[in-house]
Amino acid sequence: MVASYRCNEIKGEVMAILEPGVEELNAEVCQKYCDRFPQTCKQLLTDGFNQYGGATKNYPTEVSKKVKEELMRELLSRMETLFLYQLKHVNNRLVAQFKEEASALIQASILFPARK
Length: 116
Prior knowledge:
Elements: H1 2-31, H2 37-55, H3 61-111
């Protein structure tokens, strides 16, 4: 019971430590496409799990593992909005690229119509 309580406290501490990094990424990805998005997300998750693992290594594995899974769900839930913003920017880029290519094809067919 004490182990569960302490592991949950550590989970909260890890979330608090990672929050500034999540907020910084959020501020960027809300505005524009973020080239470093995958690396930053991976680094945040890795840092969080490393901190949690180091702080809970002396507690029973079954307890720390259960709380670690909760930590993972909370982190991914917290970052879900970031994923959605990034997907929106990816979608916008792809649509813009498609429009440019379609326009170029249309222009090419107007300027150089197919000969019969």
